[in-house]
């Protein structure tokens, strides 16, 4: 895959774990990883509280320290619920 300077990505978490977007989008070998980030994999941490911490650390590195990504907006969550379904 060729290196890309700029790209757009849309992502919605499909399971309730902080690691959902870090692993699925930025894992060094198991994702598209367009910016080719090589940080630690938070999923390697079995303890939930520590994994959550590691995901926040990864987000800080991605968005601030190394500025690998620059989130531009976050869509609101819209839910429709009907009690009899």
Structural summary, described in words:
The chain is an all-alpha fold. The protein has a domain at 35-70. It has helices at 19-26, 48-65. The longest helix is centred in the middle third of the chain and has 18 residues, at 48-65. It is globular, with a radius of gyration of 15 Å. The relative contact order is 0.14. The mean pLDDT is 79.
Low-pLDDT parts are none
What is the distance, rounded to the nearest whole angstrom, between the alpha carbons of the first and last residues? 45 Å
Question: What's the Cα radius of gyration?
Answer: 15 Å
Choose one word for the global shape: globular
Percent in helix: 25-40%
**Overall pLDDT level:** 79
Give me the strand/helix succession.
Answer: HH
Number of helical elements: 2
The class by helix and strand makeup works out as mainly alpha
Number of strands: 0
Q: What layout of secondary structure does this protein have?
A:
Blueprint: H1 19-26, H2 48-65
């Amino acid at each position: 895959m060729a290196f890309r300077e700029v790209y757009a990505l849309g992502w919605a978490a499909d399971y309730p774990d902080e690691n959902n977007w870090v692993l699925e989008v930025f894992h060094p070998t198991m994702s598209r990883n367009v910016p080719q980030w090589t940080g630690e994999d938070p999923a390697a941490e079995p303890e939930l509280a520590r994994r959550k911490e590691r995901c926040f650390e990864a987000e800080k590195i991605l968005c601030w320290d190394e500025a690998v990504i620059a989130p531009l907006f976050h869509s609101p969550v819209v839910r429709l619920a009907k009690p009899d379904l």
